[in-house]
Design a protein that fits this description.
By secondary structure, the chain is mostly helical. The protein is built from nine helices and three strands. Helices cover about 50% and strands about 5% of the residues.
């Protein structure tokens, strides 16, 4: 099995387990192309390190990330290609340190919501969208992409539960919300429904923008 075939199998198997591997997949394809340009038919530590430390002006944490992706792939590939060299841990130990999160005060949140309510739009939906979005983030602690990916079918208004299907690790979960949050979501759904009525056909429904996604309307 050549490197291209091995990489395709590797990505297919991991994605079947729920991993998206968008950035990782692109990086590994770039690595395999680099090996091919070097005339190599299997992974070596020397070439992995040479590839990982490009470009020279990148942050060391980026180098470590690139080498880590290669190392994981090399471990898997070594089962079918005995010549594979697995880069040892510690070659590029640098890790990016995240900045401490900023915690908004209650007064700052109130000011943010007041400002969002002043957003202008032709149909009056923009301010409702952003106010509801910000309020939902405050009330639930959801990630922004999780809130933006919600469809109206993911909201159980009767039970007060949100079904989060597109999470960071590809797993779904249920998030209970306070009755006041349910009321806010109902008001937004009703306002949005009056501006963008639900289409009568299934095909048209699939083209609807997610109910919570900000719009310029």
């Amino acid at each position: 099995m050549n490197l291209e075939q091995a990489l395709n199998n590797y990505l297919r198997i991991r994605r079947s387990l729920g991993f998206r591997l968008q950035q990782q997949g692109g990086a590994l394809r770039n690595f395999v192309a680099f090996l091919r340009a070097q005339g190599a038919s299997y992974i070596t530590t020397e070439l992995a390190l040479l590839w990982a430390t490009q470009p020279a002006n990148a942050h060391p944490a980026q180098w470590a990330w690139r080498l880590g992706r290669v190392r994981r792939f090399a471990i898997w590939y070594s089962a079918t290609e005995p010549r594979t060299e697995i880069p040892p841990t510690g070659l590029l130990p640098h890790r990016r340190r995240r900045k401490p999160p900023y915690i908004y005060s209650d007064e700052e949140i109130k000011r943010l919501l007041r400002c969002s309510q002043q957003l202008l739009s032709r149909k009056g939906l923009r301010w409702r969208t952003f106010t509801t979005l910000f309020g939902l983030l405050v009330a639930t602690g959801m990630r922004v992409n999780e809130a933006l990916s919600l469809d109206q079918s993911d909201v159980d208004f009767d039970r007060g539960v949100l079904h989060i299907q597109r999470t960071k690790f590809g797993k779904s979960r249920y998030v209970p919300v306070h009755p006041s949050t349910v009321d806010a979501l109902k008001r937004y759904a009703e306002a949005r429904g009056s501006i963008f009525p639900i289409p009568p056909t299934r095909l048209a429904r699939t083209r609807q923008v997610s109910w919570s996604r900000p719009t310029a309307a």
